[in-house]
Amino acid sequence: MSGILLPSADGRLRRYRPSTAPLGPFACRPARSRVLYAAAHVVADPLAASAEAGPSVDWEATLAFRRRLWAQGLGVAEAMDTAQRGMGLDWPTAAELIRRSAAEARAVDGRIVCGAGTDQLPAGRAHSLAAITAAYEEQLAHAEGCGAGAVLMASRALAAAARGPEDYLEVYGALLRQSERPVVLHWLGPVFDPELAGYWGHEDPGEAAEVLLKLVSEYPRKVDGIKVSLLDAELEIGLRRRLPTGVRCYTGDDHHYPQLIAGDGERVGDALLGIFDPIAPIAARAAQALDREDPAGFRALLDPTVELSRHLFAAPTRHYKTGVVLLAWLAGYQEHFAMVGGMQSARSLPHLATAYELADGLGLFPDPERAAGRMRELLSVYGVAA
């Protein structure tokens, strides 16, 4: 295969020779030793008439991608940040996504949890705690009504309205008392969304963790686990050690996930990760290594993926979805590189080129020649003769 010219961050072009050794097909049952969810992206419909009509989703391509994740033994975390919640995907479309994905999960016996938040509330306005609670209740009822577990997502509206920890405990307590099944509590840090600074009523993460632990201790049977997305491994390990028995800690740390999933000698980690969307074939193989009680094999598989993950999740971290969708297109899992809200333009060409190179080096493209051809098409749009 001939080489391809890729742009670097310094503006220069470098020649890269694509891999010729992709990972082969892989299918397996879910891991026994961990619970692993991939937060999955949505495939936009690039032929939508106009942005004013609202987000348009290619449902078949979106659901086909989820079936691929389930076939590899991973659970699907639906309608989460990776699906552009709060960044293009509105609540009516998210509700339809949840309904369709939950039905697909039942058909294939796939594990699924779905994001429930407050994003139907108009942005830029002040909302009462009662209105915020009602918004959460609507989305929680929808997810559970579709037969899925719920992830109570961090709320921008609550972050803006809360006067202190008591307000968080009031809102979340009301939701936990009425939930039909145990939920996942999601702590999304400001590195992912600056509007969530000071969540749980404290700017200091250590103090915020105490509020979250208090909530869990009051409703241990209503909490399946907590998802921690702070990119702070030590804080997460300390929080995990203090959780009640039976309450899981799902790492959302896309920088340190191999060590956090492997465990610290006291407690192992489960995961709910956006990076599992593009690296699913490797994550599935690594999970099977854990089931074989082969931690060295697990790390040998997963550690090399961290460079790609840190690149995709580089600041501004919220734009990691652009790289995720790029890799799905290059891998042949969708027929275009377009995103809801036009977010495919959120990253620079050198950033996308590096994402391609790192993913190719990991063998993530089933057809490297097709991936290289599509990368050349993208480069040509920017005037690069590759």
Q: How would you classify the helix and strand content by structural class?
A: alpha/beta
Rounded mean pLDDT is 95
Strand order of the largest sheet: 3-4-5-6-7-8-9-10
Q: Low-confidence stretches at least 5 residues in length (pLDDT < 50)?
A: none
Q: What proportion strand? A: 5-15%
How would you sum up the global shape?
globular
Order of helices and strands: EEEHEHEHEHHEHEHEHEHHHHHH
Helix coverage percent = 40-55%
Features:
single chain; 386 residues; alpha/beta; 8-stranded parallel beta barrel; two-stranded antiparallel sheet; 14 helices; 10 strands; globular
Notes on the structure:
This protein has 386 residues and is an alpha/beta fold. Helix content is 42%, strand content 12%. The strands form two sheets. It has an eight-stranded parallel barrel with strand order 3-4-5-6-7-8-9-10, surrounded by four helices. A two-stranded antiparallel ribbon has the order 1-2. Helix 3 (129-145) links the parallel strand 5 (112-116) and strand 6 (149-152). Helix 5 runs parallel beside helix 6 and helix 12 (320-330) crosses helix 13 (349-361). It is globular.
Structure at a glance:
This protein is an alpha/beta fold. 42% of the residues lie in helices and 12% in strands.
